[in-house]
Sequence to fold (233 residues):
Amino acid sequence: MFLYLTVVEIKRRSDPRRSGTLLFELIVLTVMGFGGGIINPVLLGQVPFPMGSDVVIPCIVLAYFFVRLLGSDLMQMPGIYHLRHIAFELVRSKLIHGWCIKSAQIIPSTYFHQFPVFGVLTAGAIGGCGGLFLINGGLSPIKNAMPWSVESAVAASALHFVFANSLVSLPPVVSATLLSSEDVSTAAHFVIVVFLVLTRLVPITQKILPWRILSIFSTATTMSTIKKKSKDE
Fold:
């Protein structure tokens, strides 16, 4: 959690609008780091995560002063950078996993009798990127483009859902080799850890995701149609 918060703190420091008094900056860091853990409990009738754990606030304060002491440049050095971002994605995957599981237990199934669907998908996505919306006071972050933090949280929530509900399964040899438990939720958690860490450390993998490839083809087709119509006119 500490390394996760150092990543969030560096992001906060990079935006002058999020600078101010010590209390202001600590609250901003809390909201940025655990926005999903604030929004989801409000929606699901639970205790907000920063209030429900006595570990969170001390970690926030420690990460804040640690980055302030060492400076952002040192924290961005190779090795330290990769370690922090691996930790960042491990925590984010745990938050998404946790909210997917918890919301599935709280939200009753309706149209699909086996399990709730869209409520769980929403809770998982919010768990992975809720701070972005909370700190910006609304939906402005996705008005003109889809930030990777949102795209990856939605994708991870969807991946978790299909594996946790056995709609897709890992090959038996993978499960037997890498996982200590045969529980489907453990497999779902493992999948989103791999997805989030891989796409963070190797950004080029983001470009070959299926929905992005489809988007490229769709855009190319649309542009070709527009050009053809322009020639005909």
Q: What stands out?
A: The first helix runs from residue 2 to 13. Residues 2-228 form one domain. The chain has one domain: 2-228.
